[in-house]
Specification:
heterodimer, A: mainly beta, eight-stranded mixed sheet, four-stranded antiparallel sheet, 2% helix, elongated, B: alpha+beta, Helix Hairpins, Alpha-Beta Plaits, five-stranded antiparallel sheet, three-stranded antiparallel sheet, 9 helices, 53% helix, 19% strand
């Protein structure tokens, strides 16, 4: 489903895993229609023809503007050896972006998700942050059964800089810095989690896919021209 | 006229003024220059330390006030050095000050409160607040008053003294807020089933936060119903919508499962034998 759909788009019909997406001619213009989980949206495209790019995007519901943070809670906690570095694989919820393209430019037309939406609080109500919540199994190698329309796979490098065994139960990321890579069968991200103390860690994304030949997704924040300055997120309320 | 002649005239002119007469003028000039430097330094210090606490316009007023205030005080101090008697000015100023002080007590109170509110910042523009039983959104925080827009869209001006001395509830200060429902079900209904239905709805709702964990439990037995309490947290930006939506969902889901919210009721037992005796008596 992911990819670039070139003009002419009349008609374009995509129906997959509960996603119904259609672009058809409406007079001189185009009519965009999308249905996901009984939630429909319609838009008029004032153009004779254009291209459409369907991409996984940063895990962020920009239309609700609830939060830019993503908290992934591990189904099983992980113990990391002192002064050691390990890679694990966890899932993350995929948001799908539909971009309209033409005249050497593109912009976000629509965004939706098939993943369950849930939010949580990291820290306390006064100084904490609201995060998008996702519970993930933990894998030590790349699993084969991840649906790229619902979940992506993150390769997380755990770097324990302390002299103690550290238990890790969750990871929090700032989605403005997400770097999503994809192919037909997998959506992926790479990130590092540097454990500084028993309670504090630093997370950051790595600009690379987890397999060779993966394509970098269009960045929603790039298309909406949001300036990103902060690159790391410091987890100060427990790991 | 050659250079020697000019120097001659200048020397004669200086000679007319005695040294002890020049000194106070020089001293006054030096004091005013020092006061200007001090005022400049003080306003720069204020600018640095209050830059994050005040908005640009108000900070500008404060800086100008402090700058000119210091210079005026310096001028008043300098006047006696120049032989101008300020005792009359001080007496007149004192009396005027007392009169103005009494007359403008509330104005000064509002002004000082306004400065404290701006420095302490218990509320911000756009915050949802309750001040002195008035609820609404903060539209503006002025030097003298704070402007609210209540839920009916009305413009409400509250003097800053009132804002400062009253309890302020800032609804949007924290990022998460609790939702609490007290739901009555019949004594004949299955309370466990009702709790499970509510828990499922809470779990399914995206904006009911996973942590802090929601809590659903039997809280009390009232005269007509078993009270099931639900406590959960939502992002403050979604709190109102979530509260409305979830309550309706709970009502519809409980009804669908045959669990009803009872009317107030009283059971009256009538004993026929006793009733007959009362009639005979």
């Amino acid at each position: 489903m992911y990819g670039y759909y070139k003009a002419p788009l009349n008609p374009l019909r995509i129906s997959k895993d509960g996603i119904y997406l259609q672009i058809k001619k409406d007079g001189n213009d185009l009519h965009y229609e999308r249905t996901v989980n009984n939630n429909s949206i319609e838009k008029i495209l004032l153009t004779k023809d254009c291209g459409i790019i369907i991409n996984p995007i940063e895990s962020q519901k920009i239309r609700n503007k609830v939060t830019p943070y993503l908290l992934i809670e591990f189904e099983k906690s992980i113990f990391v050896e002192p002064k050691d570095t390990n890679n694990i694989y966890i899932t993350f919820p995929v948001d799908i972006g539909v971009f309209i393209s033409g005249h050497k430019n593109y912009d976000l037309l629509d965004a939706f998700t098939l993943a369950k939406e849930k939010y949580t609080l990291y820290g306390n109500p006064r100084n904490g942050v609201i995060c998008k919540y996702h519970k993930s199994p933990v894998f030590t190698s790349i699993p084969s059964d991840v649906n790229p329309l619902i979940n992506g796979l993150m390769k997380l490098k755990l770097i324990n800089t302390t002299d103690r065994w550290i238990e890790v139960t969750k990871s929090v990321f700032d989605s403005y810095e997400m770097k999503v890579y994809f192919n037909e069968n997998l959506v992926s991200m790479k990130a590092n989690m540097k454990i500084l103390t028993e309670k504090i860690a630093e997370t950051e994304f790595v600009d690379s896919g987890i397999k060779k030949g993966m394509k970098k997704a269009l960045e929603m924040f790039e298309s909406t021209k949001i300036a990103v300055t902060q690159k790391k997120y410091t987890m100060e309320d427990g790991i | 006229m050659n250079l020697d002649q000019i120097f001659d005239i200048f020397t004669k002119s200086i000679g007319i003024i005695e040294a002890d007469k020049i000194f106070p003028y020089v001293l006054a000039l030096v004091m005013i220059i020092i006061s200007i430097i001090l005022a400049k330094g003080f306003s720069m210090f204020l600018k640095k330390s209050l830059r994050d606490k005040f908005d640009k316009d108000r900070l500008g007023i404060l800086l100008k006030g402090s700058y000119y205030g210091i210079i005026i005080i310096a001028i008043i101090m300098v006047l006696p050095i120049l032989g101008i008697d300020t005792s009359g000015l001080l007496v007149a100023g004192g009396v005027t000050g007392i009169i103005i002080g009494f007359a403008s007590q509330s104005i000064v109170g509002n002004l000082i409160s306004g400065l404290f509110i701006m420095a302490e910042r218990p509320i911000k523009i756009g915050s949802e607040v309750e001040i002195d039983s008035i609820r609404g959104f903060v539209e503006d925080i002025g030097i003298m008053s704070t402007i609210l827009r209540n839920y009916d869209g009305l413009y409400i001006r509250i003097p800053n003294e009132k804002v400062f001395t009253n309890n302020i509830i800032n609804v949007s200060a924290n990022i998460a807020r609790r939702i609490e429902y007290s739901i009555g079900i019949r004594f004949t209904d299955d309370a466990d089933r009702a709790i499970k239905i509510i828990k499922d709805l809470v779990e399914d709702h995206p904006y009911i936060l996973k942590h802090p964990s929601p809590d659903v439990f039997v809280d009390n037995f009232s005269e007509s119903s078993v009270i099931v309490m639900m406590r959960a947290w939502a992002p403050v930006s979604q709190w109102y919508e979530t509260k409305k939506e979830l309550l309706l969902k709970i009502k519809l889901s409980l009804e669908k499962e045959g669990i009803k919210i009872p009317y107030p009721q009283r059971v009256v037992w009538l004993s026929k034998e006793e009733s007959d005796k009362n009639t005979l008596n």
